[in-house]
Amino acid sequence: MISSFHKPGYWKKKEVKVILTGDLYGLVLAGGKGSRMNMDKGELQYHEAINQRSFLYQLLTKYCAKVFISCRVDQVNNLQTGEAYITDEGLYKGPLNGILSAHHAYPDKAWLVVAVDLPHLTGETIAQLINQRDSQKPATAYATTQSKLPEPLIAIWEPAALEAAETYIQSGSTCPRKFLIGQEIKTIFPADDAELFNANYYTDFLEAKNRMASNHE
Fold first, then answer.
1. Which residues is 141 bridged to in the sheet?
2. Residue 159 vs residues 7, 50, 69, 110, 128: alpha-carbon distances, Å
3. CA–CA separation, 213 and 202 (whole Å)
4. Which of 112, 96, 143 is nearest to 28 (CA)?
5. Edge-to-edge strand ranges of the sheet holding 150-157
6. 3-state secondary structure the chain
7. Angle at CA 72, nearest 5°, toward 168 and 23?
8. What CA–CA distance (Å, rounded) separates 58 from 54?
9. What is the value of pTM for the model shown?
10. Going by C-beta distance under 8 Å and a sequence separation of 6 or more, which residues neighbour residue 132?
11. Using CA atoms, how far apart are residues 189 and 30, in angstroms rounded to an integer?
């Protein structure tokens, strides 16, 4: 059976309409060193004439009141003109370092967080996350139908969740997934698990490129 993701025309699906709210900011997590990829994953090009970091930045601007790239200080010169950014404070280890740096800059905002190594995100992926958001819960996160585990780096984090996450990380724990598992969050599922495919290695990059090329046939 061919999944919907692999059917011709998947990338041409209509974007779902959303109601924009001023309390939701977007964050492209791009501060990792890409040691497994052996290069900055934000510089990879899945789409013609644009790197993945800028692609996701432009995608989120359609759905969020403001968008920022989360990055290290030494990456700032690599950003495109006009791209807003928040540099990592370096207070903590792991992806929560970037997320909490953004929270400290705008503590009253909810954050729609996307990792730069998710090559198959579409406007529909983002719109469905926003439309199914439950702001009364700490977070709304995608999960694959296979694992059922929350994906913290394609999720909406409410301010209260980020306050609790800071207490959690100060206790010595750093895993954002384990934090979300311990919270009463809302979990949603993509139309196809491949939308949440994570490209950590160069072979993953090639796999994603081949998948996207075959889909355009």
1. 155, 187
2. 38, 32, 18, 5, 20
3. 16
4. 112
5. 85-87, 66-71, 24-29, 110-115, 150-157, 139-143, 186-188
6. CCCHHHCCCHHHCCCCCCCCCCCEEEEEECCCCCCCCCCCHHHCCCECCECHHHHHHHHHCCCCCEEEEEECHHHHHHCCCCCCEEECCCCCCCCHHHHHHHHHHCCCCEEEEEECCCCCCCHHHHHHHHHCCCCCCCEEEEECCCCCCEEEEEEEECHHHHHHHHHHHHCCCCCHHHHHHCCCCEEECCCCHHHHCCCCCHHHHHHHHHHHHHHCC
7. 60
8. 6
9. 0.91
10. 140, 186, 188
11. 24
Please say whether the beta carbons of 10 and 195 come within 8 A: no
* Nearest-angstrom CA–CA distance, 217 and 184: 42
Digit-by-digit pLDDT tens for the chain (217 residues) are 334 444 444 545 555 778 778 899 999 999 887 667 768 898 899 998 899 999 999 999 999 999 999 999 999 999 999 999 999 999 998 999 999 999 999 999 999 999 999 999 999 999 999 999 999 999 999 999 999 999 999 999 999 999 999 999 999 999 999 999 999 999 999 999 999 999 988 999 889 999 988 776 3
Judge contact between 153 and 115, C-beta under 8 A.
Answer: yes
Phi (first) and psi of residue 74, to 5 degrees: -75, -5
Amino acid at 50: I
